[in-house]
Amino acid sequence: MIHEFDVVxxxxxxxxxxxxxxxxxxxxxxxxSKLYPVRSHTGAAQGGIGAALGNVEEDRAEWHAFxxxxxxxxxxxxxxxxxxxxxxxxxxxxxxxxGLPFNRTADGRIDQRRFGGHTRNFGEAPVRRACYAADRxxxxxxxxxxxxxxxxxxxxxxxxxxxxxxxxxxxxxxxAAVELATGELHIFRAKAVHLATGGFGRMFRVTSNAYANxxxxxxxxxxxxxxLEDMEFFQFHPTGIRGLGILITEAxxxxxxxxxxxxxERFMEKYAPTLLDLAPRDMISRAILTEIGEGRGVxxxxxxxxxxxxxxxxxxxxxxxxxxxxxxxxxxxxLGIDPAAEPxxxxxxxxxxxxxxxxxxxxxxxxxxxxxIVEGLYAAGECACVSVHGANRLGTNSLxxxxxxxxxAGQDIGGYVSRAALPDLPRDLADRAVEAIARxxxxxxxxxxxxxxEKMQNLMMQxxxxxxxxxxxxxxxxxxxELRGQYGEIGLLDRGREFNTSLLEILELGNLLDLAYITACxxxxxxxSRGAHAREDFPDRDDAAWLKHSVARLVGDRVEIGDKPVxxxxxxxxxxxx
Amino acid sequence: xxxxxxxxRFNPKKDQVPYFQRYEIEAESNDRLLDALMHLQRTAxxxxxxxxxxxxxxxxxxxxxxxxxxxxxxxxxxxDVAAHxxxxxxxxxxxxxxxxxxxxxxxxxxxxxxxxxxxxxxNSGEVREKERLQSREERARFDDATxxxxxACCYSACPVRRNTNAAYIGPAAIVQVSRxxxxxxxxxxxxxxxxxxxxNGVWPCVNFFECTRVCPRSIKVTYLIxxxxxxxxxxxxxxGDKPRGGREFHP
Lengths: 578, 251
Description:
The structure holds two protein chains of two kinds. By secondary structure, chain A is α/β, with parallel strands linked by helices. Helix content of chain A is about 35%, strand content about 20%. Chain A has 16 helices and 22 strands. In chain A, helix 1 links the parallel strand 1 and strand 2. In chain A, helix 2 crosses helix 3, helix 3 crosses helix 11 (about 395-420) and helix 13 runs antiparallel to helix 14 (about 470-485). In chain B, helix 3 (about 110-115) packs parallel to helix 7 and helix 7 packs across helix 10. By secondary structure, chain B is an alpha+beta fold. The radius of gyration of chain B is 21 Å and the shape is elongated. Chain B has helices at about 35-45, 80, 110-115, 135-140, 155, 160-165, 170-180, 190-195, 210-215, 220-240; strands at about 1-10, 20-25, 65, 70, 90, 100, 105. A five-stranded mixed sheet of chain B has the order 2-1-5-3-4. In chain B, strands 6-7 form a two-stranded antiparallel sheet. At the A-B interface, helix 3, helix 4, helix 10 and helix 15 of A face helix 1 of B.
């Protein structure tokens, strides 16, 4: 079936819905998502959305921008970071005006709390910047945006799975998607395509990410020759529930929670004397691994499943009930404990991709170091890389990113499609998608996908995780090459057309494998430590050689990596201490 | 330990009627039931149809009927439903919605009812301040309703919907009504009235409390339905009128 729209948005999380609302004001817009709306992973964001409203103490957008740059270990592009911090303020007010139920101050304004790496006056002390709706801020953003989509009659195609994007002569021409219900292939012709497919944490064994976070947008683009930026930077959130990886929000520490080792010691005093437990995530994740590695984890056996404790018991039942009710619920459901009474066992969990599809500050996808765009192709949110997060994202900035850049992309698309004509769709492009799915459907009798998935997730966790070495990563690259080979042999065991979830899971695994491979190759190449990329063999940041973005291109079975300059036009790089 | 999953299977393309299939599986007592189902699907029976995403109770994808009660598979631990070696856990799709395949149901009717009640802030007034001001007390009044993740557990469990009136908009839609009409910023009560003060609006509820019992977010659903009934009665009284969709509400 062939559809024609001005705009097709892929993904119904925050960045997709915001874009659809903006673009939909001016253009015929459809949202396709492999999930039902409100099932997207934006809903899992907990602690808050950062904006220098200054509602509870003095704050400035400039300080927020600086924190974002420093938090990103100076790999953040500085003008986009300033834009992010400036526009965060209007975006938060806009969300409130749309009905988002923020917690309130005593005088009825949006309440704000502390979060990791957010400081006043360029690093002096923590500042209350995170606007929040209990500890379900992402849930409320997703609900609020979906409510507005209903109000404005946005067209949804639910459970449509992206499989290909049509690009020819640097012009995006539409996309192909499989409908879960029927197994039918749908071709969408469009003037503009906006990708908001989210993250790809499922390449790791322990992750806070949803099953759906398989990087479909970046992977499809990588296979169509679009390079991916800064893929070596993947954030491990320090506080996942032990074993399960379920996120325990940084807001627990923002409200005063403390990390402790087996001796009860507040170990962050050694690693970040000023910000302590509110240091950026990459530093805390490394600190936890160091504690465990030196035998001060709770088990004390230095094993991969050792853990530390997040103590919130001194906050009191009332604070936890009013400001951290979800965490309380998770602890009861999955651990059988009450966080107001006993500490929470935590370990780092794969959480957020700083890298992704390179875009400019209007959401337009760029393909080289000169900012050449693919006409009509946009991306925003976690799948994109503006780059406002650099080598390490600060807490709350993911939500800021998706509302600010989802909205900017939507506005730019609105203007663009009013000038553009519907591009032709050369027949061979569409045929290629039809054939790819047909070939997959015919594959029977091969090995099942599960062993390949497990091997990939273990490899990435063990060899391309928090601490990295040349030897480990070279091995990971070799093993991923093998796994990509084996992937081609996998057989499809469910032959049905309707609601064939295993067919789609095989496609998702292919996407994860390609992105894992690019991640490992980019990580192996970068011989320094910066933000979330921590190399034991190159422990220092090396600005002379490596203050540059990586741009990795998948060329057949090889990854070719080039560079792109970093915008350091506002704050010259300095050592990063907290 | 070994446990037995007894799962309702149905593929409308192939099967005349649903049937139960038994699987003996290995599971840890602290595993989520979703982990067990995914392991089963990925290693033993890839034809098993189910939805899932976040795996920690916030996306609402994996609602199903587990041992006769609506639950999220990712918020149910194996030990919650299988107390001993060899225990049998019966898993069925949500009720009152057509089965698409195995544990997947058509959520179309559920979302259609949700959309009917205008589930968005209605307030055409200009915002004079940067944000609309709201006191903590005003904010607290609708807090419970904002927990809803639209998983449809309540919609499936409601005895009225199951047995007497499938056209009833159902508990979740009324929770959304309550979320907005109790919000000091919303001015849409009258606009929503035709859908809620209606024979298929709030009035079919007769307080079975099943919605409240099954809600994985612990929302006091029945209380919010009754609160909404009271708001309608009060409003009609203030106009010298009676509720139009059903009987008057006497708490």
